[in-house]
Amino acid sequence: MTRKPIVAGNWKLNKTPAEARQFIIALKNKVAGIDTRAEILVCPPHVALDAVVDAARDTKIAVGSQNTFWEESGAFTGETSTGMLESLGVTHTLIGHSERRALFGETDDMVARKLRKVLESNLTPLVCVGETLEEREGELTEQVITRQVTAALEGTAHEHAGRLVLAYEPVWAIGTGRTASPEMANDVHTLIRRILRGIFGDSAAEGIRILYGGSVKPDNASTLMAESDIDGVLVGGASLDPGSFAEIIRAAP
Prior knowledge:
Blueprint: E1 6-10, H1 17-31, E2 39-43, H2 49-55, E3 61-65, H3 82-88, E4 92-95, H4 98-104, H5 108-120, E5 124-129, H6 133-137, H7 141-152, E6 165-168, H8 182-200, H9 202-207, E7 209-213, H10 218-225, E8 232-235, H11 242-251
Parallel strand pairs: 1-2, 1-8, 2-3, 3-4, 4-5, 5-6, 6-7, 7-8
């Protein structure tokens, strides 16, 4: 099965609405000449979502949220519901990014609750998993990834498998300049797909796309995406510049 790659940019806490709009205008011009079958996704801060959706209209660029909540409304100060995101024209959302887990205390259970809510909506979830440096050096990678994937997908109906996207982002490689070698990354992607086979069966698992995130740059994107189980990339810092992000899009198979 040939899975359609995704090149996603997570802007984190960067870009005002005006800056985000200018980025999309620049990126639109750069990707116009790129012949790619990859899906292109940008995930700006919530305050810039409306501006980015408007600027990306009638282009190949999809817009995702960096986070969402498991309730639709109520006394949840600072949260944003799936319905609110959909009303803006947002089509994707990250769930369980390592920074949400490490800095804001998101647990496996919270990630699972968010995923269940997203699957009730029309949004495409990108579920993030990954181990810390301490866990990798302690040879706990398989244990941690198995726990995170299994917990996140608990209660997920088999008919939703085709909507899932996972992202493996080794915490030790995010923003550090350290990157898992393509072989190291692919080994974990293969592990994730094996876990998915156990949950959903062979056929469904083969269709689920698994992205790699962790210091992805134009000079390593093509070798990462050439691996058999790496179906695209989740880009951090390099997605903040339209030129470098366009080069990564160009590298997609």
